[in-house]
């Protein structure tokens, strides 16, 4: 019997998950685009971020990241604040309204995933949980190795 292509299966499952998550959000009219939602998520997870770091994370030029933040600031979802350690540095901070929006999106996504999980047998859910935990641990190891390699390359 031929062994299934695990990477292809994971890719297909990831595509299905993205579809479930996207449809959970797209059914509700949001005041922001998917890219703006991603920016808000990044800002929420990284309270010390500035425009240059945001641009790196989005893989865009700083001027594009700044324009994205301008739009989010105009609708009251982002504030720019001076860094208390270096007043020349400007930090991006999600507002309370942004945090509420992110909470609503998270809740909708969790409900959508729960609906899929409810269609799975309990043993399948438990197997999935173990597999995801193992995958997460392995991914952390790969990320650590990649970080170490890129750090060595920069210092060489």
TrEMBL record:
**Which top-rank group of organisms is this from?**
Bacteria
- What are the record keywords, sorted? DNA-binding, Transcription, Transcription regulation
Q: What SMART domains has UniProt attached to this entry?
A: HTH_MARR (SM00347)
Q: Where is the HTH marR-type domain?
A: 3-137
| Gene3D superfamilies from the UniProt entry | Winged helix-like DNA-binding domain superfamily/Winged helix DNA-binding domain
Q: What is this protein called?
A: HTH marR-type domain-containing protein
* Species annotation: Micromonospora lutea
């Amino acid at each position: 019997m031929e062994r299934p292509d695990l990477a292809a299966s994971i890719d297909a499952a990831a595509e299905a998950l993205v579809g479930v998550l996207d449809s959970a959000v797209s059914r509700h009219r949001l005041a922001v685009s998917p890219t703006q939602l991603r920016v808000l998520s990044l800002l929420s997870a990284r309270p010390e971020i500035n425009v240059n770091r945001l641009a790196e994370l989005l893989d865009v030029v700083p001027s594009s990241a700044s324009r994205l933040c301008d739009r989010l600031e105009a609708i009251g979802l982002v504030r720019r604040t001076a860094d208390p350690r270096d007043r020349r540095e400007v930090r991006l901070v999600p507002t309370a309204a942004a945090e509420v929006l992110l909470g609503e999106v998270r809740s909708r996504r969790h409900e959508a995933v729960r609906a899929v999980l409810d269609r799975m047998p309990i043993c399948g859910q438990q197997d999935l949980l173990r597999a995801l935990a193992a995958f997460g641990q392995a991914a952390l190891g790969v990320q650590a190795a990649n970080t170490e390699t890129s750090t060595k390359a920069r210092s060489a």
